[in-house]
Amino acid sequence: MQTHADPCKQPSLMHPSLAIVKLLEQVQPTTDSEVVTLTQALGRVLAEDLASHVDLPPFDNSAMDGYAFNFDDLDAGTPLTLVGDSFAGHPFSGQCVKGGCIRIMTGAPVPAGYDTVQMQEKVTADGNNISIEAPKAKGANVRYRAEELSTGTKVLSAGTLIGAAEMGVLATIGASQLRVYRPLKVAFFSTGDELRPVGSELAPGQIYDSNRYSIQGLLSRANVEWIDLGVIEDDKEAIRQAFKTAAAQADMVLTSGGVSVGDADYTKQILDEEGEITFWKLAIKPGKPFAFGHLGDAVFCGLPGNPVSSMVTFYKLVWPLIQKMQGLPQVKPVTLSATLTQDIRKFPGRVEYQRAVLSYNEQGEAQVAVTGGQGSGMLTSMTLANCFIILEQDCDGISAGEKVTVEPFNSVLA
Known about the structure:
Blueprint: H1 16-25, E1 33-37, E2 50-51, E3 61-62, E4 66-69, E5 80-86, E6 100-104, E7 116-119, E8 123-126, E9 129-132, E10 142-143, E11 154-156, H2 164-172, E12 177-181, E13 185-191, E14 195-196, E15 207-208, H3 211-221, E16 225-232, H4 236-249, E17 252-256, H5 267-274, E18 276-280, E19 284-285, E20 291-295, E21 298-303, H6 307-325, E22 336-340, E23 351-360, E24 366-370, H7 380-384, E25 387-391, E26 403-408
Parallel strand pairs: 5-6, 13-16, 13-17, 14-15, 17-21, 19-23, 22-24
Antiparallel strand pairs: 1-12, 2-11, 3-10, 4-6, 4-7, 5-9, 8-9, 18-20, 20-21, 22-26, 23-24, 23-25, 25-26
């Protein structure tokens, strides 16, 4: 018997975790690099391994303010003789003598012949006679040359995002210039006749374009070079030209709106004509109408028009793409278990990311509550939240007191 597909039956939607895997298969890290100065390196990604050209520390030095001496010269009850001092940048230049010691400051070189430092709080000075409370061991409070790194040791690996700590390490080893991957370029625009610029008068049926500002903030946190192409009217040819302009100057084209099923939602149509679409619509809430494809050499991500949907799909789907394209390793999101403090309603079918507040009770136990209404247009819910409650596809609701999976916001949203 011949069977026919039910025309009313909707195809199953792709789970977001599978979508992320498929997305990452579609992009490659940039290979273009450039040399920048250290002051230009913050937020950039190293394009090559970096080895130290110096020992760290470069010389034996004191870990604290106190007195340096030879451990074997200590004799119970017999003071040492002060013969000089050593300051950071002004080392002791005299001769180390048996039974002698020097006053030394933190970071100052420990001269050859002395091997131990005692903190000044455990020293009694009477003129040049220095009585030292015996230290715990020979070598106490001395930071030895190359104990952290020796010359030629790899300090940072290619693919390292340069943050504040890395800046300090690079300065410590004297790296005034370094090779980094060029910045990723992302062009973005919004579509919709109802959108108006901030500061203008609203006519009936119009709203302010908030998504471009949210996207700009997200892209800035992602350390990319962003190109804002503004708001494009719901005109097929205008949107087509915007796509061509964006693809010609960016590695990624990002849009908000126009990926739904309305008569004026042209994004998918144009992408089919001018490029290619890999998939469209996912089992995610908020954010089902997410599109991905290619426009020439640029990748394309179409975010939904609803503000929260736009932010959630950027965070969960576009952010991992950007990381890979920047040459960064993929980092699995941090999740934890928390006790729900209220009932949550949910219909099976999609993975939900509900905006919530994670806190700890007096016993130090994690608890979580949603921020209120979870409509995809309620952008204020994102400002109140510090995490998502993740409700899996087959979940049909959770009762107060049950454990739920929580994903705290990372630096992109925090």
